[in-house]
Amino acid sequence: LDLPGGFVDIGETAEDAIRREVKEELNLHTDSIRYLFSIPNEYLYSGFNVRTLDMFFMIKISDMSTLTAKDDVAQAMFIPFDQININSIGLKSIKIAVEKFLASRV
Fold this sequence. Notes:
The protein is α+β, with helices and mostly antiparallel strands. The chain has two helices and two strands, in the order αββα. It has helices spanning about 15-25, 90-105, and strands at about 30-45, 50-60. The chain has a two-stranded antiparallel ribbon. The chain is globular, with a radius of gyration of 14 Å.
């Protein structure tokens, strides 16, 4: 499992990047965006260790009728919070973020 996301383009705000990535990957229009938290991350890319700051947001989408897996997304789905299997999340920073988010909802 994964979350929609990607890199912020030059001249783009984090919020604009969220809107663009959600549109590119899921074909959905984002109604509102709320910043949650950030997590330092690093990963191997073309033989280089790249350090990033992963930012996580809560978004609101009112029209789900256009939901389509696009770009590099194999399948799109929504899972109720109480049914999320943390071990099915592949990326470490996403796993940490989902655990942090779920813990804050208790």
